[in-house]
Design a protein that fits this description.
heterodimer; A: mainly alpha; 9 helices; 75% helix; B: mainly alpha; globular
């Protein structure tokens, strides 16, 4: 029971309290770039969740069973990036085959998932947190991806309404989006301290 | 840049393009994580900027040297692998000689690997141009990025703690603005700066 409690708390923590987008600024590029429409944002969120979950687990396994026993920690970043690039290639092929319309609206941002900081950031933070069992890693990775999806969907929903708003010309586009993001982080700060 | 006039190579243009005309943060809006994440104070921002310059110059050099051997479908992975190598070097160097900064910047140094600026310069410049041009381009873009980081970090540090480089400069009655230290400060500062840049540009175009 205790174990399940820790897992649920860990999941909620990475989704709400320690959301990577709001507290660590990771994944800001797609967060600002692909959040124009809700359906695209949702697809992006799901793709990132999948890649994050997969590469989080894979890199942890590689780290724990190959790199550390062999003393090859120095090649850690290179191994991580290869795993992530492979996972993204997989998603890209899948989306191209089964969701051609989604593929079109993603454009360049789909292959760019491999340079999404959320994913590499998660792999590094799992290492820093020193998580030492596979189940916990799986829950945290999925949660992080899910947190990104939540953030980008909220942002897209707001931006769909923001199109109709009359703002000064120079603030249209990126500046307005950034300020909106700032106010959103302020709202999410209300959760700080709820869970460790 | 180089695509506009491929015959005449403009070395000075390569160096200055990144400062304002193609400034990665303010004009191209790429590589937005570090400008938000490490700009709570000027010193980590400067360290980050210098690390990015180092990685950018080295990776531009390496990619420019192997540009004739690259296969189109394998080029992105080759870019990321060479970038990852240089970031590892940089990370080990910081850990050995700047342990405090390494502690503060933490995971953001390895995250340079996935910084769009470096891969963008590799794709747009280094894989098409000769070595010297690529090196100058790396220095230019990197410096533009560092300046942007320092501007944001300067504003945030002054408003959040009333000091810069740890030296108090604000008058005695100044109340530190704690929100600037938090994520919201980063987003709003960058948003307002981008708005300012956009308004300067429109005014310039109108006159």
């Amino acid at each position: 029971m205790d174990r399940v409690y820790i897992l649920i708390m860990g999941f909620l923590s990475v989704v709400i309290v320690n959301n990577f987008v709001f507290t660590k600024f990771l994944g800001t590029c797609p967060y600002l770039g692909v959040s124009g429409r809700l359906d695209t944002a949702f697809g992006m969120g799901m793709a990132v969740t999948f890649v994050t979950a997969m590469s989080g687990i894979m890199t942890w396994l590689i780290d724990f069973y190959v790199l550390v026993p062999l003393g090859l920690e120095i090649t850690r970043y290179i191994c991580y990036i290869v795993v992530i690039a492979g996972a993204v290639q997989l998603v890209e092929m899948y989306v191209k085959k089964f969701f051609p319309s989604l593929n079109k609206s993603f454009g360049i941002f789909l292959p760019l998932i491999s340079t999404n900081c959320v994913i590499l950031g998660l792999c590094l933070f799992i290492n820093i947190w020193g998580t030492d069992n596979l189940l916990e890693v799986a829950v945290l990775s999925t949660g992080t991806g899910f947190g990104f999806a939540v953030a980008i969907c909220i942002m897209a929903a707001i931006r769909e309404k923001l199109i109709l708003v009359d703002v000064p010309d120079s603030f249209k586009g990126a500046p307005l989006t950034l300020i909106t993001a700032g106010l959103l982080t302020l709202a999410f700060m209300g959760f700080t301290g709820m869970i460790r | 840049m180089a695509d506009e006039n491929p015959v005449k190579i403009n070395y000075l243009g390569a160096l200055t393009a990144g400062l304002w005309r193609e400034n990665p943060t303010f004009r191209l809006l790429i590589g937005m994580c570090p400008p938000l994440a490490v700009t709570t104070a000027v010193k980590p921002a400067l360290t980050m900027g210098l690390s990015v310059i180092f990685v950018l110059v080295c990776s531009n050099l390496a990619i420019s040297l192997m540009r004739n051997l690259l296969k189109p479908h394998l080029r992105i992975i080759m870019f990321t692998l060479s970038i990852a190598t240089f970031v590892t070097i940089c990370d080990l160097y910081l850990r050995a000689f700047q342990p405090v900064m390494s502690e503060i910047l933490g995971a953001y140094i390895p995250l340079i690997i996935v910084n769009c600026i470096i891969i963008f310069r590799a794709e747009a410049c280094a894989s098409k141009n000769n070595v010297w041009f690529s090196i100058l381009d790396g220095i230019g873009s990197g410096t533009g990025f560092t300046i942007a980081l320092c501007i944001i970090a300067g504003i945030r540090e002054i408003l959040a703690s009333g000091s810069i480089f740890g030296v108090a400069i604000m008058p005695r009655g100044f109340v530190p603005w704690a929100a600037m230290q938090m994520p919201v400060g980063a987003f709003v500062t960058l948003g307002l700066l981008l708005g300012l840049v956009a308004s300067v540009l429109t005014r310039k175009k109108a006159s």
